[in-house]
Structure formats: structure tokens, C-alpha cells
Amino acid sequence: MSKLSIKVGGIPYRVKWCKTMKHVEHEGQRMESLFGQTHFAKHSIRVAKDTPPERQQETLMHELVHCIVLHYQINEMVDENGVHIERAVDLMATGIMEVLTSLGISLPDNNNEFYGINKEK
Length: 121
Ligand SMILES: [Zn+2]
What we know:
By secondary structure, this protein is of the alpha+beta class. It has helices spanning 53-71, 86-102, and strands at residues 5-8, 11-18, 36-39, 44-48, 105-106, 116-117. The chain has a single domain (4-117), classed as Orthogonal Bundle (Arc Repressor Mutant, subunit A). Helices cover 30% and strands 21% of the residues. A four-stranded mixed beta sheet has the order 1-2-4-3, with helices on one face. Strands 5-6 form a two-stranded antiparallel ribbon. Helix 1 crosses helix 2 (86-102). The longest helix is centred in the middle third of the chain and has 19 residues, at 53-71. The protein is globular.
């Protein structure tokens, strides 16, 4: 069981890897298949572990961008109904991942306890 937590806006979000995409949804009623989901009130991020490690890392970054949009009130990334604009969140996550990867920094995934700066490059 993961004890990982990542702070956004001073709030530690607990990160949990779920067995399959069907187990990601926090309320667990629709049994929808999701790569990841954030529950803002519970300060919880869930990521499916039945996907490739790269996908898990991208998903985690995507969810962290949602947290950043919320805590830093980036209204430019929110539509008129208060819903985060998924395309903007996705592009921001992709851009941040590119920067981190080019610096040799990897995000955690289900079976990577050695995330951080990759010294082997
Ligand atoms: Zn999203």
C-alpha cells in the first residue's frame, strides 16, 4: 500500500494505485473505467495500475494539474460551468512531463519506488 502523498497548494494529496481501471472511481458506483481520478474533498488521487508505467505517470501528472488548477484558481483552465477544461489540463500535463523527462526526472508509478532524478543518464 502506497504511503505517497504529494502537496499541491499546501494540501497533501494521497496517491493510491488501484488494481484496475474499474476500481479508480472514488464513489465506486458507476464502475466506469478511468485512468485516474482526483477527489478534491478527500485529498485523494487514484491511478489505475493495469496500464503501462508511462501511462500511470502521465495520469498522475494530469491529476496533479487538476489540483493545481483548483488550488491556484487558474480560471483560464475552467469553463463557464466551473468544469476543468480537459484538453487544457492534458496539454499542460504533457508539457510538464516533457520538461521533467528531459531533466531526467521521473514521476512515481505503481512499481517504481525509485522515482525522482535518474542518475544513470
Ligand atoms: Zn482530467
